[in-house]
Amino acid sequence: MTRPTEPVASRVAVYIDFDNIVISRYDQKWGRGKFHAERLRSADVGDDAVRARIEPATVDIGAILDYASSFGTIVASQAYADWSVPVNAGYRQQLLGRAVELVQLFPSTRGMKNGADIRLAVDVVEDLFRLPELTHVVIVAGDSDYIALAQRAKRLGRFVVGIGVAGSTSRSLAAACDEFADYDALPGARAEPEPVAAEPATTAVVDSGDRQADASALLERALRVGQAQGDDDWLHANVVKAQMKRMDPSFNEKSLGFRSFTDFVRARPELVELTEDGQARLLRLIDQPGT
Question: What structural domains does the chain harbor?
Answer without folding.
Answer: 8-185 (3.40.50.1010), 211-285 (3.30.420.610)
